[in-house]
Amino acid sequence: MKAMNKTAIYWSLLNYKDWNLYIAATKKGLCYVGSQNKQFEELSVWAEKRFPDSPLVEDREKLLPFADELIEYFDRKRKDFTVPFDFHGTEFQVAVWNALCEIPFGETRVYSDIANRINKPAAVRAVGTAIGANPVLITVPCHRVVGKNGSLTGYRGGLEMKTQLLELEKQSSTSVDCN
Length: 179
Known about the structure:
By secondary structure, the chain is α/β, with parallel strands linked by helices. It folds into 2 domains: 66 residues; 84 residues, Orthogonal Bundle (Arc Repressor Mutant, subunit A). 38% of the residues lie in helices and 15% in strands. The chain has a 4-stranded mixed sheet with strand order 3-2-1-4. A two-stranded parallel sheet has the order 5-6. α4 crosses α5. The protein is globular and about 40 Å long. The C terminus is likely disordered.
């Protein structure tokens, strides 16, 4: 019987200022950004579902390029992410996640905007489900999607984290950029 090579999932705890979250990547790119102040179990449960039997390997060095971009974002020095991603989802989920990446920094959209963007205007609920399955919080900005009346709606990282991210972007977009 031939042994299968399982994709190693490299992970690290990003602990920067008030931000504490687990991040993970494969050799192909960032595959996971966890919720604020959650236990390692959130990552391990996710990894077992998405990459069954793949080893989880702590490797701060391999995660540095991803951590650096997140830190720049938290410091209001980065509005877009350039690191490669390795996210796995259905064709529909990937279409939704790609549409999320088109939402400009500091702006929000409603679920129906995303459904229309991917040419599935009747799929608003499915869009919400796909957004909830986004494995790379912050970097694929699902926090920029709000309810039709502007209210904050569900977020895997919790509404407190969503509020912090939206506030960070709001403050950044009103500050002067001297670069």
